[in-house]
Specification:
The complex is a heterodimer of chains A (about 270) and B (about 130).
Chain A (H helix, E strand, L loop, with lengths): L5 H13 L28 H12 L4 E4 L2 H16 L1 H10 L11 E4 H6 L2 H7 L8 E4 L21 H8 L3 E2 L18 H17 L4 E4 L2 H9 L10 E3 H8 L14 H6 L5
Parallel strand pairs in A: 1-2, 3-4, 3-5, 5-6
Helix pairs in contact in A: 1-10, 2-3, 3-4
Chain B lengths: L1 H8 L2 H9 L11 H5 L10 H10 L2 H5 L3 H4 L5 H5 L6 H13 L19 H11 L2
Helix pairs in contact in B: 2-8
The chains are: A alpha/beta (about 270), B mainly alpha (about 130).
C-alpha cells in the first residue's frame, strides 16, 4: 500500500477527507500475511493479524478499517476465529508478548462498509460526473468469500455498482466480477494468471467496458500487468481513483502499467 | 523419494480431516466444485477425484497430481458445495501435509522479476507453497 499500491492509499485518503470521514493510519501495525491460513491447528499464522488487533486495542480503538481486500479478508477471518473459538484466543494470548491480552473486542471493516452508509455525502461531493465512462466492476474473491466475511451478497454483489452509479459512471453487468484473478500464482505460475486475465478482460471488452474498477491491490496488479500477454490495454482503476476524479481531486496514478490518462483525456475527465 | 516416505509414514486421510476440520465422506462427487473453479483447466485431476483418492487410501495418486497446488484458495467451491464442505480447507490441509514434510514448492532464487511483484503476492505465495 505504501509502495506498489500507493495510488490506492493516496486516493482513498483524499476521498475520505473530502467526504468528512478522514481515515487515520494506525500508530503501529503488522503485515497480515496476505493469505489466511486455513488449517485447524495453525495458530502461528494468526499471530500477525491478531497483533494488529492488539495495536488497535492498545490505541483505544474498537474498529479497524482496511483498504486492501486481502488485509480485510485475513484480519477479519483471524479476528472472527478468536471471537468464535475461546481456546484459540487463550492459546493466542499465551503466545503473545502483548500486555494486556487481546480481548476480541475489535471489529474489522473494509472501506466499502464505510462508503455504504455515505451515499448522500458521495452524491454531494461529485463535482464532475463521469458520465461518458463505461466501466466493468470487478470484486475478485477476498471481499466476498468465504461468505461469513462477505461485504455483500457472495454470488450477486451490488455494493460497488451502487457506488459507481453515484459517480455518474455507466456500469456494465459483469458476471466475471466474482472470479479469481489468479492471485499469488503471479509469482511462479504467470501462465495461469494470464489465462485468468484474458478471460476477465476479454469479457469486459466485449461488453463495451473502457476500464475495469476494483479495490484489491493484487487484482489491480494482475489485471494491469498481465494484460501485456493479451491483445488488450484496458486501464484498471481503484474505485477511489474514480471517486477522486469525480470529486475534482488531483491524483497521481503512478502505479499503473497501462496508463489511464489517454482514456481520461479522451473522455474530457483530464485536460 | 521424500514423497514415498511421506505416504508410508502417516495416515493421510485422518491427517487431512484433522487439519481441515472437514469430513471427506460427506462428498457426493457432484462436481459442483470443479464446475465453478476458475483454475480447473490447469488441474490434472478434479477436486472430487482428489477426495476419492484420499478416501480410498491412494495417497500417491494425490501427490503425483498438481490439483492442490493450482487451487489458489479463492473459496468459490467452498461457498457453492451443496454438502457444505469447505473444499479450500481440504486443499490447504493436503498442501500442509506435504509442506510440513519439508517439501517446498517455490524457491525464492527462481522467482523472476521479484522486485516488480507486489509484496502481498510474494508473501501469499510463500505462505501457500513453503513449509
Amino acid at each position: 500500500m505504501k509502495t506498489k499500491a500507493s495510488d490506492y492509499e493516496t486516493s482513498a485518503m483524499k476521498v475520505m477527507e473530502k467526504l468528512g470521514q478522514p481515515l487515520v493510519e494506525m500508530e503501529d501495525w503488522y503485515c497480515c500475511g496476505a493469505v489466511q491460513s486455513l488449517t485447524e491447528d495453525d495458530i502461528m499464522h494468526q499471530i500477525a493479524p491478531i497483533r494488529t488487533m492488539c495495536c488497535a486495542q492498545e490505541q483505544g480503538e474498537d474498529e479497524v478499517v482496511t483498504l486492501c481486500d486481502m488485509c480485510y479478508n485475513v484480519l477479519r477471518q483471524a479476528n472472527d476465529r478468536m471471537k468464535d473459538k475461546e481456546d484459540d484466543l487463550e492459546t493466542m494470548n499465551e503466545f503473545l508478548d502483548e500486555d494486556p491480552d487481546y480481548e476480541g473486542g475489535v471489529e474489522v471493516y473494509h472501506l466499502f462498509h464505510i462508503l455504504k452508509g455515505m451515499e448522500d455525502e458521495i452524491k454531494d461531493a461529485v463535482e464532475m460526473p463521469l458520465d461518458d465512462l463505461v466501466v466493468a466492476p470487478y470484486y475478485g474473491c477476498m471481499l466476498l468469500r468465504p461468505d461469513n466475511v462477505a461485504v455483500d451478497e457472495t454470488e450477486d454483489p451490488e455494493i460497488m455498482e451502487d457506488m459507481l452509479e453515484l459517480l455518474g459512471v455507466k456500469v456494465l453487468e459483469n458476471p466475471k466480477r466474482t472470479e479469481c484473478c489468479g492471485s499469488y500464482h503471479t509469482v511462479n505460475r504467470s501462465d495461469i494468471v494470464e489465462k485468468r486475465v484474458e478471460d476477465i478482460v476479454s469479457y469486459a471488452v466485449e461488453e463495451g467496458a473502457e476500464a475495469i474498477v476494483l479495490s484489491c491491490p493484487l487484482c489491480q496488479f494482475n489485471l494491469d500487468f498481465h494484460q501485456r500477454a493479451t491483445d488488450f490495454d484496458v486501464p484498471i482503476f481503484y474505485i477511489t481513483e474514480l471517486m477522486a476524479l469525480a470529486f475534482g481531486l488531483d491524483i497521481d496514478m503512478k502505479n499503473h502499467k497501462i496508463d489511464p490518462r489517454s482514456l481520461l483525456k479522451e473522455k474530457g475527465i483530464l485536460e | 523419494m521424500k514423497l514415498k516416505k511421506l505416504t508410508r509414514d502417516i495416515d493421510f486421510m485422518d491427517k487431512v480431516e484433522e487439519l481441515s476440520g472437514q469430513s471427506l465422506n460427506s462428498c457426493i462427487r457432484c462436481g459442483t466444485c470443479a464446475a465453478g473453479c476458475p483454475f480447473v483447466e490447469d488441474m490434472e485431476i478434479l477436486p472430487e477425484r482428489v477426495f476419492k483418492y484420499i478416501t480410498l487410501g491412494e495417497f500417491e495418486k494425490v501427490l503425483e497430481h498438481n490439483t492442490m497446488w493450482i487451487c489458489a484458495a479463492c473459496y468459490t467451491c467452498s461457498v457453492r458445495c451443496p454438502r457444505d464442505i469447505d473444499i479450500a480447507k481440504i486443499m490447504e490441509a493436503v498442501r500442509q501435509v506435504i509442506l510440513r514434510a519439508n517439501i517446498d514448492m517455490v524457491d525464492v532464487d527462481e522467482v523472476d522479476n521479484i522486485e516488480e511483484l507486489p509484496q502481498l503476492a510474494v508473501v501469499g505465495c510463500f505462505r501457500k507453497e513453503t513449509g
